[in-house]
Design brief:
It is a single chain. By secondary structure, the protein is an alpha+beta fold. The chain folds into two domains: about 100 residues, Phosphorylase Kinase, domain 1 (2-Layer Sandwich); about 190 residues, Aminoglycoside 3'-phosphotransferase, Chain: A, domain 2. Strands 1-2-3-5-4 form a five-stranded antiparallel beta sheet, covered by helices on one side. A two-stranded antiparallel ribbon has the order 6-9. Strands 7-8 form a two-stranded antiparallel sheet. A hairpin with a 7-residue loop joins strand 1 and strand 2. Helix 3 runs parallel beside helix 7, helix 4 runs antiparallel to helix 5 and helix 5 packs across helix 8. The ligand N[C@@H](CCOP(=O)(O)O)C(=O)O binds next to helix 8.
Length: about 325
């Protein structure tokens, strides 16, 4: 979303001296995104450096994650990019470090990928994203690091308490019921691994109908693969009436299933995963909407969207259609 921590050209020019990317040409704050402070950075390039042809980068100042939590995310991006997946590689400085500090925040530069995100994905794009997510899950099985989901059960309970006063009694009832159900739902038979955990439409870039990039791995963690699928389809395959668009959903899931077949336990857990995924973003959007952090540029997202998706999933829980 946002720029919470401003950076001046002089501050960045000074910081860039640690890299072999040449002098700063342009610095521009990015409005999109909601967690970190992001900037497009263009440099003059340095033909003698490690990134001779690269002049376009994204600078992120991490607002929530601490430096010790970031190696999981940044090294996952590097790992997936080495496996041929279109994830932006973090840039290492002259000392081989990809994580520094700028204006009191942990900060990193990553390669700026080509392409734009799509607001209205078509069936072919959903199919591509389904296949891509399955490939990311399979590749992630070899990723050696683990990180607990910061938006798991304890976070759900804490956040539900914090936002409760902003809800109607009916909304409070729905939330309390879901938080309690999710807390006791048996997940022990479900496959786990490295998940993106926020693979919304604005985190995939396309050139035409071809995926050119997967960005924003800063919620990535070790969790259920099926939960990641549910998060992704709740955004990519949702229709205007808060029911799935069947053609996009089937294309997505069939392409996923062709690369990593769903297990019987996953088919059974599907409705609860869709609900967990909707609850996760209802809660975070409520929190960001009613209890926002101060920001120079900010664009809170509408929490009612996920309230409606959750209510619909509770009314009618669609089976896994593969
Ligand atoms: N590697 C990248 N290549 C191209 N654009 C990027 C890249 N990383 C981020 N962006 C742009 O910055 C925006 C915000 O980034 P994002 O990681 O989603 O922010 P946040 O972590 O705050 O949610 C994206 O919507 C995209 O336009
Ligand atoms: N995708 C989430 C919030 C995180 O936003 P992002 O800009 O980091 O993708 C939502 O839509 O609520």
């Amino acid at each position: 979303m946002s720029v919470f921590t401003p950076v001046s050209e002089a501050e960045l020019s000074d910081w860039l001296r640690a890299y072999t990317l040449g002098p700063l040409r342009e610095l521009k704050g990015i409005l999109a995104g909601i967690d970190n402070s992001n900037f497009f950075v263009t440099t003059e390039g340095d033909r003698s450096g490690n990134w001779p042809d690269q002049t376009r980068f994204v600078l992120t100042l991490f607002e929530n994650l601490k430096a010790e939590q970031l190696p999981y995310n940044l090294e996952l991006m590097e790992f997936l990019s080495q496996q041929g997946l279109p994830s932006p590689a973090p840039i290492r400085d002259r000392n081989g470090q990809y994580l520094g500090e700028l204006n009191g925040k942990p900060a990193a530069l990553v390669v700026r990928l080509e392409g734009d995100w799509t607001e209205r994905p078509n069936v072919a794009q959903c199919a591509q994203v389904g296949g891509l997510l399955a490939r990311m899950h399979l590749a992630g099985q070899a990723y050696p690091q683990q990180r607990e989901n910061t938006h798991g059960n304890a976070w759900r309970i804490r956040t539900a308490i914090a936002v409760s006063r902003f809800l109607t009694p009916a909304e409070q009832g729905l939330m309390e019921n879901e938080v309690a159900l999710q807390a006791t739902f048996d997940r022990s038979e479900l496959p786990t691994g490295a998940i993106h955990a926020d693979l919304f439409r604005d985190n995939i870039l396309f050139v035409g109908d071809t995926v050119s990039g997967v960005i924003d791995f800063y919620f990535a963690c070790t969790d259920l693969l099926l939960y990641d699928v549910a998060i992704t389809v709740n955004d990519w395959c949702m229709g205007h009436d808060y029911r799935f668009d069947t053609a996009r959903l089937q294309a997505f899931l069939q392409h996923y299933h062709a690369t990593r077949p769903f297990t019987a336990a996953e088919a059974e857990a599907w409705p609860m995963m869709l609900r967990a995924a909707a609850l996760r973003f209802w809660l975070s959007r409520l929190y960001d909407y009613f209890l926002p952090r101060p920001a120079e540029m900010n664009q809170p997202k509408d929490p009612r969207h996920f309230h409606r998706i959750l209510a619909q999933h509770v009314r009618e829980t669609p089976p896994l259609p593969v």
